[in-house]
């Protein structure tokens, strides 16, 4: 019978080093021996070092029946162990071979049962001890809150259980670069905590094996690999050792550990959601092996971490997520008017930044940009939105390194990360984060993890701290921050729709009111033209007819009196026509509103009405008046008409007195569909009126008294009403008979008033 070894002697090059077949090395570590048996229990594989442990040569074993070599009782024990589904179980099989005690780990590699035997550990740890240590650890674990605290506890516990010089919890990022996340080591050792290591330190095929086989031992880094021999009955015959505990390690990895000064290692995989999340990496600076009980306890430490990752990460993020929820609730509970100007208030709210821990935010709506915090210029915002919508048509785009996608658009920009969300109808919202220049400490230059020289490939031999400065990127957006931004973007989108619908409703309502008022005006104008204008015309006709019929007998004095009466009637007609002209010329000019200081308007009005005020002996008192959003010349006309009305309807029983008060600060005054920010009140002590006429007095040409009692056309207050409508405000009256009247005018909000009022 011919036998051969299956040692893999392929040369590793720069081209194939990431595909080094480490799962089929064809050799093992020497602290145990390996046998591979077929399904009919023929020994098909055996390591050369079986003679070190038993009085047998591998050449004497290969090709023989297992029972013929080791006895039927040993075969029976192994079969019972296999049939009880204990392959790869937590405890190896304890068995006696040739009067020597061994522990055998068994797994199946394709159609071969792989038996790996190690001598029984003397004075092995009892299960009760392992149980006690585990209970103590669980108690301590429950006192930790964050994932980092848990990992630090695991590092400490693993070192106490195993006795290794250094225990590290090694965590991978998305690219499998590693970070020493937690560590416990001898006091005399230089700590590695916080150091980063490139993904090339643990290549892809090694990571794959860590997923398949969660515990890996190297007992002595200076070991001499032991070849595996097999019956030479098939070309390319090999043995997959992915699940082996004795498998020999890649020579590049061994050299890597030697360069670090390590003498022995234990590595436990941390698998989370079927992905290699990290490792428990134990280093010892001399030869070291541990019993199956200690291996189990160490493996349990890793399972404690992986079972807690989701919970602890949730706990770590929960506080910040709660702040985000509070910010969202505060934003969505704002009692804002359904107006486009409310976006100014929303953008200024600090909660809009707290929502996703951003440094700046911009809202673009109806070609207007509302900004807060760290934001680019308006031009850059427009350019960025155009670039995003062209390249990523979806409604959301998130990045912490904007230069990767839009290097030209954001050149020399002060921000690096954004959350963009479309709000529909060419409206957009963007949150910004600035560039975070960070320093990463690598355990050696990551660009030199593999070195090629005249002797082949080697791992780096320098592990001095190598600092890397990372620029052009912000801190990563957490998923809960992205979710909060998306959630609020939808809420804001709904708000914009409500604003649009409200404006349309207001538009149609205003048009309806305007049409109604216009019809009423036409009726009143028709009435005044057929009644009030006809009355002076009839008088003129009557007087002139009488004069013409009495030309021969009429005296000069009588002619003079008649002409004065004609002139008076003509003036009455002229006044009526002038009032009609003024009234019909006032139109809605809200787009021409400006800041108007009412103190100046009142001062010029009193000066202009000086003679009228003096004749009536009226007293005018006033407090400081606000600046409002209005039209200057209309405000002057408004004040003149209100003051004239108060003086005209003064009581004969007392001296006229007009007191003018006003709101000193902007305050939101909700009234059905409208919102006002300032009010001014003219209070007089005149004749007053019944409150049932509070609305009719503002109708054109409406009079509560006869022409003989009080002169006038009835246009004055109607003109005031139309002026306030023109500037988007309102006017109201409250009267008490024989006590006086309060005329209250309300002014619309401008964006700044709205912010101040809030």
From TrEMBL:
Supply the enzyme class, top level. transferase
Respond yes or no to whether keyword Transferase is given for this record. Answer: yes
Q: Which SMART domains match?
A: GAF, HATPase_c
Q: Where is the Histidine kinase domain?
A: 528-751
Q: Read off the Pfam families from this record.
A: GAF, HATPase_c, PAS_2, PHY
What InterPro entries does the record tag this protein with? Answer: GAF (IPR003018), GAF-like_dom_sf (IPR029016), HATPase_C_sf (IPR036890), HATPase_dom (IPR003594), His_kinase_dom (IPR005467), HisK_dim/P_dom (IPR003661), HisK_dim/P_sf (IPR036097), PAS-like_dom_sf (IPR035965)
EC identifiers of the protein: 2.7.13.3
Could you tell me the keywords of this UniProt record? Chromophore, Kinase, Phosphoprotein, Photoreceptor protein, Receptor, Sensory transduction, Transferase
Q: Where is the Phytochrome chromophore attachment site domain?
A: 146-303
Q: Which reaction does it catalyse?
A: ATP + protein L-histidine = ADP + protein N-phospho-L-histidine
Signal peptide boundaries = none
Similarity comment: family membership: In the N-terminal section; belongs to the phytochrome family.
UniProt name for this protein: histidine kinase
Organism, as annotated: Flavobacterium tagetis
